From TrEMBL:
PANTHER family according to UniProt: OMEGA-6 FATTY ACID DESATURASE, CHLOROPLASTIC
Molecular-function GO terms, alphabetical: oxidoreductase activity
Organism of derivation: Mycena venus
InterPro entries recorded: FA_desaturase_dom, Fatty_acid_desaturase
Stated name of the protein: Oleoyl phosphatidylcholine desaturase
Top-level taxon: Eukaryota
Amino acid sequence: MATKHEQGIYVVPDITVKELLAAIPPHCHKRSTIRSSMHALWNMIVIGVFYKAATFADALINPQTLSLPHPALYPFARFSLWALYSFWTGLFATGLWVVAHEAGHQAFSESKAINNTVGWILHSALGVPYHSWRITHAKHHASTGHMTQDQVFVPATRSDKGLKPFDPKREDLQGSSVAEEVKKELYEALGDSPLGATLGFFSYLIAGWPLYLMFNSSGQPRYPAGTNHFTPKAIMFAPHQWGQIIISDIGIFLWVAALATSVYTWGFATVFRVYGAPYLWVNHWLVLITFLQHTDPLLPHYRASEFTFTRGALATLDRSLLGDLGSVMGWIGAHATMGISETHILHHVCSKIPHYNAWEASRALRKVLAPTGLRMDGNPGGWAEMYRVVEEGVGRSIDQRRKVGSVRCARTTK
């Protein structure tokens, strides 16, 4: 006997790019080098304040200046202090990552040279091959939600998981009636047990970003084995781009050299405490933000016959980063990361709009999209929401998909 699981209906948009762009006030497209620089400088100042505050407080954690009931509490207090430092520093350093990302979209300045210089410096300092990722990220924007052309978060199909073909006697196309036998098959194929979901959740947050750069993990599955962002002749790059890939690799070489020199000078523990732990938080936020922007049970992926740029651009969600922890944390999350999570649909419609104009542009875009019934807001972006999505197996499987023509929407087996 089949059990019911209601998914709702996804509205496949037919609106044109011209209509969307016409809704955005012209001044929102203006890019100011000075204003963009001030936003980047502000995040650097905040990070500097965090460092000064942490080092000042660290010096006070000793028996001569602070009385604690047990000696073991001193190292615990010091660990807690630097853990707090790494969390907040990582959050604001993610904002610098976003500034570099904007530079890659030519949204930092009217000058291409300034954009690429700022982007290369900031991304190299955060372990990102600037031009290499800029090129593949542009492909992602051009083909967001395309089953065979998108660069990241491309879900596996039913056949990829070795599952039986669709059988209308056991399930329906709308995904509202699924036999227990099918649910069991999906559960076994996906391995979406609570333990499996938890392990996948943590490993993906910690290692997902570098694994994507080095091994194309979670990337486009049609790319050959060995695909990475560091080889000039990788399938994603054209011959005229090879020089840019080498420039990106030089940035990574200098980054590694700087880290090695720092470890030699100050020791691994100090470098990890000051830079390494916040760096891991940056990678964590990057994966969490981007995964949730593009992954949800109701977000579609399109086959080539149904794909358009507009449909791909609108197959994303705006989410309030840390909004699940309250309005204050939501405001801090948006402020620290330049609103990249909160205005993401607008970013896909027009990626050259700088983040400080994206809020107004996003509001204008919402007005023209409201009559379509298109869902634009996801649940607040945080650990609970990512766990929910991972635990439901979304993005890891399925031709066990609700299907309208060549539009495919993942759904759960719950």
